[in-house]
Design goal:
single chain; mainly beta; eight-stranded mixed sheet; Neuraminidase; 22 strands; four-stranded antiparallel sheet
Length: 257
């Protein structure tokens, strides 16, 4: 289920299992807070060339955007036809790829102009996208990650994501960071750090309490949205309908390996 406006109490909790013994767990320090469009039902997020790229969901409200990080200003926007529920996005060369939730159709745009280039098909649901420089990586809401050839968009393999408790379901928005896939786990405040070779969760990030009660005076939804800039080693996170985007540093929790 993708359309779930959570009540404040539900969103404020971790809403997920504790890290299994032996799996490192991380908290966070907030480095900087930026404005974020509270109308944006964030589905995909990445940072490129000084600009934040964001996709939003919901039928009739889905869009792709370029956003000025410092102010939250929407610099460029392309609305998706209302029959599609927009999901994850990723850049590849001079293209931007977007998937949709249940339509089994994706779109390829010009990265600079957002002009539509073509469409492509894939089986099943579409949730999140990222890339490792060689492959497109996709989530579909299950415990699996799919790998695509970035030129043909044909599937080349899958891995099953597991921790010491078993499969990790509802993998959502993705980001490639220092050789790992970071994945929001839908309806939780947790991010899994996944080894892409084995599917094993190498660490858990707990972002409980990131959005304060004062920021929940209007409806907000769950944590979703991870972006990273390798050049400056900056990490950002946000959520659906959140009024803020956070730059964070990870902090290893005491008592974890």
């Amino acid at each position: 289920m993708r359309i779930l406006i959570a009540v404040a109490a539900a969103v404020a909790c971790a809403c997920g299992p504790a890290s299994p013994a032996g799996t490192p767990e991380y908290g966070y320090d907030v480095v900087h807070v930026y404005p974020h469009d509270p109308q944006a039902y964030t589905q995909g997020l990445f940072y490129l060339n000084g600009v934040m790229f964001e996709s939003t969901g919901l039928n009739g409200e889905s869009s792709i955007r370029k956003v000025r990080l410092e102010t939250g200003e929407v610099l460029q926007k392309h609305d998706i036809p209302e029959q599609y529920f927009g999901e994850g996005i990723v850049n590849w060369k001079d293209r931007l790829l977007e998937i949709t939730w249940k339509s089994e159709v994706g779109f390829i745009y010009d990265l600079n102009s957002f002009a539509m280039r073509s469409q492509f098909m894939y089986p099943g649901e579409g949730w999140g996208l990222t890339q490792d420089g060689k492959r497109i990586i996709m989530s579909d809401g299950s415990a699996q990650l799919r790998f695509w050839d970035p030129e043909t968009l044909r599937e080349t393999g899958r891995i099953r994501v597991i921790d010491e408790s078993g499969p990790v379901e509802q993998l959502n928005e993705l980001e490639w960071i220092k050789g790992e896939v970071y994945a929001n786990v839908y309806q939780t405040n947790r991010i899994a750090r996944i080894d892409p070779a084995t599917g094993k969760v190498a660490g858990w990030i707990d972002l409980t309490g990131l959005l304060s009660p004062a920021d929940r005076v209007r409806p907000v939804d769950v944590l979703n949205g991870i972006a990273y800039d390798a050049r400056t080693d900056r990490l950002w996170v946000t959520g659906k309908l959140w009024p803020k985007l956070f730059e964070i540093k990870l902090v290893r929790k005491s008592g974890t390996q």
